[in-house]
Amino acid sequence: MTGMTTDVTSAGSSGTASGSSVPGPRVLLYSDDRTVREQVRLAVGPRLHAGAPAIEWAEAATATAVVDQADNEKWDLLVLDGEADQAGGMGLCRQLKNEIYECPPVLVLTGRPADAWLATWSLADGVVARPLDAVKVQEAVAHLLAPATAGTA
Fold first, then answer.
1. Per-position b or e across 52-65, b if 16+ CB within 10 A of its CB
2. CA 148, CA 95: separation in Å to the nearest integer?
3. Relative to the CA of 132, which of 110, 141, 143, 148 has its CA 20 to 30 Å away?
4. What is the mean pLDDT of each run of 10 residues along the chain (153 residues)?
5. Which residues fall within 8 angstroms of residue 48, CB to CB, at 6 or more apart?
6. How far is CA 10 from CA 13, 20, 52, 56, 85, in A?
7. Which helix (H) or strand (E) holds 130?
């Protein structure tokens, strides 16, 4: 893997709480700010609801790492920080939507509610504005992962 990418899911956390072998959703989280990545993970939690399979999180701190992973691995959701320095999540979202066949849904984190129109331009499937509200982040992630998790739990 290129860039600063870290898999933050422990080896024993895949599957459901009851020990089923159903894999959990895979989410790639991009921000150059470690605290933003932590806020998102804490807001969503380890699984979408009780009894659901654990979410497999992977983090990327660079746009290069996101493009590489999105192009070479299967993801159920991409969460991109629209306020990341160097390469913002909105431009990155538009690039991925135009370049990756069957691009997974993308949630963009914007700097303010007024930036929602930019998220629309970026072809994002969902948007959450700062300051990040844990409930709104969790609801947006659950909504975008609903097709991928249908039939689990």
1. bbbbbbbbbbbbeb
2. 22
3. 148
4. 42 43 93 98 96 97 98 97 96 97 97 93 97 97 91 59
5. 25, 55, 141, 142, 145, 149
6. 5, 16, 16, 9, 29
7. none
* Alpha-carbon span 150 to 103, nearest angstrom: 18
Q: How many CB atoms lie within 10 A of CB 134?
A: 13
Whole-angstrom distance, CA of residue 60 vs CA of residue 22 = 25
In sequence order, what are the residues at sequence separation of 6 or more whose Cβ sits closer than 8 angstroms to the Cβ of residue 19?
A: none
Is the Cβ–Cβ distance between 5 and 65 less than 8 Å?
yes
CA dihedral of 100, 3, 115, 113, whole degrees rounded to 10: 120
Q: Which tokens go with 6?
A: 């870290």
In three-state form (DSSP H/G/I as H, E/B as E, the rest C), the secondary structure along 56-120 is EEEEECCHHHHHHHHHHCCCCEEEEECCCCCCCHHHHHHHHHHHCCCCCCEEEEECCHHHHHHHH
Contact at 8 Å (CB) between 58 and 30?
Answer: no
CB of 28 within 8 A of CB of 79? yes
